[in-house]
Amino acid sequence: MIKFQNVTQRFADGTVALKDLSFTVEDGELVLITGPSGSGKTTVLNLLIKEYQPIAGEIFFDDLPLSKIKSNQLPLHRRKIGAVFQDYKLIEELNVWENIALPLLIQKENLLDIEERITDLLTLVELTDKALMFPKQLSGGEAQRISIARALATGPNVIFADEPTGNLDDRTSKHILDLLKKINQLGTTLIIATHDPIIIKETQSKRIDLTQPEAKSKKEADQPPVIQKKLNNSNETKKAKDQKKQDNKEKQSIKEGKTPEERTKTGKNNNQKIFQKFKKQLTQSKQQANALTQKLLKKKLKDDQSN
After folding, report:
1. What's the pLDDT band for 134 if we cut at 50, 70, 90?
2. Which structural domain range is residue 293 located in?
């Protein structure tokens, strides 16, 4: 399903994050990516969802090179990969039901299907009684289980759990690991990036051990000539893109007669409006879905009484 072929990636400061990395993940497999903080585990996820392109090598997903995926195809590709993060990344202003519903609403799923899907997911993570609570009202383990439910909402082919137990105690970590294993047994490919000794000890599966961070911190001058050339070209391309982006911003600012401060304020206001719109849609969707559910229950009760 997934293949990294001699992949090299570096950060903006020239630090090489991954060097000549190769591995495969089969459909339905459970794979551990291990290594200390800074060894490149999160970089693997970012490359997999095509946040950026590697400077060398190729990544394949379902036999398709990611370099061939166009920007308008990215949303569909990313729906196939559910991500679970160490800090949960739940939206504080939305309750549990709304957090899980958000990716489904964005996909414009049928309201009744959304209701059924969320009910199934809350049952799977054993948190049906927390549907109307907000993230701040949840424990760390509960928040992580809701994060897992949201990652599963769109029915992804792969779940990538990035340090899923990093903020949890040992007992809760084992509970989260058991849940992830259950999801894998149900047929979802699972990749766990971790340095948690509990997960490593409790999981007997393929393990990809990334290079130690000190081997990752070599600057461009320390790299082989081929990699040096790619790094230099990448730096030049990035600088050119950044400069062009800045120039376009300045031109737009002059055209609109706005100062940078005014433009920043406008951007924040627009983001707030977009968020409020989504929140309103979520509330309406939930109300409509609940109304449909009640209607069906009443109809069933009436039919039962007639019989």
Report:
1. very high
2. 244-306
